[in-house]
Design a protein that fits this description.
Layout lengths: L21 E6 L2 H9 L5 E5 L13 H12 L6 E5 L27 H6 L1 H18 L2 E6 L5 H13 L5 E5 L2 H5 L1 H7 L2 E4 L1 H8 L18 H17 L3 E3 L7 H9 L4 E4 L4 H8 L4 H12 L4 H11 L5
Parallel strand pairs: 1-2, 1-8, 2-3, 3-4, 4-5, 5-6, 6-7, 7-8
Helix pairs in contact: 1-2, 2-4, 5-7, 10-11, 10-12, 12-13
Bound molecules: phosphoenolpyruvate and magnesium ion.
The site of phosphoenolpyruvate has 10 residues, from β2 and α8.
Cofactor: Mg(2+)
GO cellular component, one term: cytoplasm
Subcellular location: Cytoplasm
C-alpha cells in the first residue's frame, strides 16, 4: 500500500545523485502491459509468456503466439521488453507441456528443461517472439527460465540468436547459476535474478507453502549474498544484471539491490511509483552502504533495520 506522503515518481529510475536504474514492470497479459505503461514503467523486465497459456489445452500456433505477444508489446513500442520463454511446470503447469508424473515438480522438468526435449516448441516460440518484435517495434530481448549451468545458458543463447534475436539472457533463479554467474555471462548478454525461485531453492523451502514463508523472506542475508555474487560478476564483465522477483517491489530492498550492483529492477505495476520515488530520495553510496550493512547481518529483521538506517534521506 502506498503511503499518503509518497512522492510522485516521474517515470525515470534515478537516484538523488543521478545514478540511472531502469525501473521496469512484470507483466503477463496485454491488460497488465497497458497498466504498467500507464504507471510509468520504462519498459518490461519480465513478460511471463506462460501466463498467456495457463488454460490452453494445446500448443498455440506461431500466428496465435505472435498475436498474443504483439498485444503485450504494443504499449512499449521503442522501449525495452524482456520476454521470457515458457516457464512451464511446478507452480505454473501448462497442459500441452506436462511432464511425466514427478515426485517433486519444482525440482523436475520445468522451465528451460522442458525445451531440451521439446526444441520444436522453443523454436516456434522464438519465431513468434521475433515476429512480434518486428511488428510492434518494441526493443525485445529474450531470456530463459530455470537455467542451472553455463552450458545450458550457451545452448539457449545459440538457439535464440539463430532465431534472429540479438540480445539474449537467462534468469538466475537456481543457486548453481548464481555461483557460476561469471561463466554464464560469457554465454549471454544479460541476466535477470528471479528472487522468488532463488529464495525457494536456496532455502529448500517451497514458495507456495505458507508454513515456510519466513525462509523465503527476500531480506534473508544468504539470498542477498548470492545476489551480491551476481552483481560482482556483472560489474566485472560490464553487462546488465536485473532483478525481476518480488524483492524489487520493496523500496528499501530495491535500494539494497542497486547497491549490490543491479542495473534494473522489475516489479508489479502497483509498486512502480513507490520504488521509483524511493530511489529518487537516496544517494548511490547510501545504496552501497545499505547493501554492505544488510549483508553483514544474520537475519532478515536486522537486515531490514540496517538498510533502513543507511537509507535515511540526507537532503
Ligand atoms: C522468480 O522466480 O523470482 C521469477 C521472477 O519468476 P516466477 O515468479 O515467474 O517464477
Ligand atoms: Mg521463477
Amino acid at each position: 500500500a502506498s503511503s499518503a506522503k509518497e512522492a510522485h515518481w516521474n517515470g525515470v529510475g534515478i537516484t538523488f545523485d543521478g545514478n540511472r536504474i531502469k525501473v521496469l514492470a512484470n507483466v503477463g497479459s496485454a491488460a497488465d502491459a497497458t497498466t504498467a505503461a500507464a504507471n510509468g514503467a520504462e519498459g518490461v523486465g519480465l513478460f511471463r509468456t506462460e501466463f498467456c497459456y495457463l488454460s490452453a489445452t494445446s500448443e498455440p500456433t506461431v500466428a496465435e503466439q505472435t498475436a498474443a505477444y504483439s498485444a503485450v508489446l504494443k504499449p512499449f513500442a521503442g522501449k525495452p521488453v524482456t520476454v521470457r520463454t515458457l516457464d512451464a511446470g511446478a507452480d505454473k503447469p501448462l497442459a500441452f507441456l506436462a511432464p511425466d508424473p514427478e515426485p517433486n515438480p519444482a525440482l523436475g522438468v520445468r522451465g528451460l528443461r522442458v525445451a531440451f526435449t521439446r526444441t520444436d516448441v522453443l523454436d516456434r516460440q522464438l519465431e513468434a517472439i521475433a515476429a512480434a518484435a518486428a511488428e510492434t517495434g518494441a526493443q525485445v530481448q529474450v531470456m530463459a527460465p530455470m537455467v542451472a549451468t553455463a552450458e545450458e545458458a550457451g545452448w539457449f543463447a545459440e538457439r535464440a540468436r539463430a532465431a534472429g534475436i540479438q540480445k539474449v539472457g537467462v534468469m538466475i533463479e537456481v543457486p548453481a547459476a548464481a555461483l557460476t554467474a561469471r561463466e554464464i555471462f560469457d554465454a549471454v548478454d544479460f541476466v535477470s535474478l528471479g528472487t522468488n525461485d532463488l529464495a525457494q531453492y536456496t532455502f529448500a523451502a517451497d514458495r507456495q507453502v505458507g508454513a515456510v514463508a519466513a525462509l523465503n523472506d527476500p531480506w534473508q542475508p544468504a539470498l542477498l549474498r548470492l545476489i551480491a555474487l551476481v552483481g560482482k560478476a556483472a560489474g566485472e564483465v560490464d553487462k546488465p544484471a536485473g532483478v525481476c522477483g518480488e524483492a524489487a517491489a520493496d523500496p528499501h530492498l530495491a535500494a539494497v539491490l542497486v547497491g549490490l550492483g543491479m542495473t534494473s529492477l522489475s516489479m508489479n505495476a502497483g509498486a512502480l511509483n513507490r520504488v521509483g520515488a524511493g530511489l529518487a530520495e537516496v544517494h548511490f553510496d547510501q545504496c552501497q552502504l545499505a547493501a554492505k550493512a544488510a549483508l553483514a547481518t544474520h537475519d532478515p529483521e536486522h537486515a531490514r533495520l540496517a538498510a533502513r538506517a543507511a537509507l535515511t534521506p540526507r537532503r
